[in-house]
Structure formats: C-alpha cells, structure tokens
Amino acid sequence: MAGKYTFVRRNGLSLVLLGLMLVFWTAQFLTGRGEKNKEREEEGKPALSVAQYSRSGHFIQATFENWESEFLQMALYVLLTVSLRQMGSSESKKMEGEEEVDREPRPHPDAPWPVKKGGIWLSVYKNSLSIAFGLLFLASFMLHFYGSLKGHNEEQSDKGLPPDSWNEYIASSRFWFESFQNWQSEFLAVASIVLLSIWLRQKGSPESKPVDAPYDETGG
User: What pLDDT was estimated at residue 38?
Assistant: First the structure.
C-alpha cells in the first residue's frame, strides 16, 4: 500500500508541521539573539555569536520551556481520553460501549512486531505512546531547568552576585513561573478543541465531526 503513493503524499502532514516548526524555531533563535544582544549592548558587553547564543541559557530555557509544556499536554491528553468522556465532542470516545481502540491486540501478518512477540514487549507497546510523551516531557523539563538555571546564574554573575545551586534554584518562584505559565495555556488549548468541536465544524478534518452531525453526537 505504501508504494502506491509518493513519499511526500504519504508524509505530507508531518513534513509541513515539522517544516513550520523549523521555520518558527529559526525565527525564535534569530529574534531571541537580537533581543539578548540588544540587552548586552545596553550593558556595554560584546554581542553573542551564533554559536555562543545557541549555548546560552536564554535560548535553551526559551526552547525547552515550551517543548516541556507541549509534551506534558500530549501525555496527559492521551491518558485522560482512555477513560474520560465529553458528550458531543469529536475528541472523545462514545459515551457507552467499547470502541476499536479498546479491543485487545491480536497477532496477524501485518501487525507490528511487538504484537507478534507478545509478553513484556506487547505490554510496553500497548502504552508506548504515553510512555514516549512522558519521556519527552521529562527530558524537556530537565533541559528547561538547565537552561533557566544557566540564564539565571549568568544574570547573577553580571550583577556580581554568587551563582545559585540547582537545589536552591528549583525551589525558586522564577523556574516554576516559567513552567506554569505554559502549562495552563496548553490545557486551555486542549479544552478549547474538546469543547468547540461539540458545536463547530471543519469540513474534511478528522478533528471535526461531519458538518451535519447533531451536537450531542460523540466521537469523530
């Protein structure tokens, strides 16, 4: 079946999304470097080169602060939609009965190899999506903390103050403020699509119910 379509046709959605991510990440880097160097110029310090800025706390913190919240959102959303429902939403399973995603996997010729292997491999594979998002969240969380601490200590050095240790900084309000301001917005975005898909439609999108579906119909 895969050979029936070109690579771009098979992967168009992910290619466009990853392309947009790279465009905006590059724009973040360039504008972030410009902003940081503007601050340094005002303080009478030399500008950071591209390589120096890529290693700076300013860039690392800004990048992973956002990635962290995205992966947390997706991990919890995948898990919450297993058992929770929202009547009328295209993002919810139906209010009663089991669906295709609830059935136990069974080996067949085209099944992924963990299904054929069974045992611990199958147990892990059955939860691999939430596990992957959870691990990506933890990695991003640690890199956000590293970048935030590094940026904070760079500021401390500029002021002639001693650096904070990691255990001092993790108890500070600054790091958690950076996290919570992103976490709340991610869950607002998810709640918005869950609720708005009850009443609003987008013809052709799998994230929407059919245009003529009644409001109380649950599921896509």
Answer: 97
Burial of residue 192, with CB atoms counted within 10 A of its CB: 0-12 exposed, 13-18 middle, 19 or more buried: exposed
Is the CA virtual torsion 202, 204, 205, 210 positive or negative?
positive
Q: What global pTM score does this model have?
A: 0.94
Greatest Cα-to-Cα distance within the chain, rounded to the nearest angstrom? 68
The predicted-structure confidence for 154-177, as pLDDT tens digits, reads as follows 999 988 999 999 999 999 999 999
pLDDT of residue 123: 96
Residue 131 pLDDT > 70: yes
- Residue 35 in 3-state DSSP? helix
Strands (E) in the chain, as ranges, are none
CB within 8 Å of 218: residues ≥ 6 apart:
85, 86, 87, 88, 89, 92, 93, 94, 95
- Token code pair at residue 57: 């706390």
Q: How many CA atoms lie within 13 A of 43 on its CB side?
A: 13
Alpha helices in 126-164 (DSSP H): 128-158
Element (H, E) at 66: helix 57-83
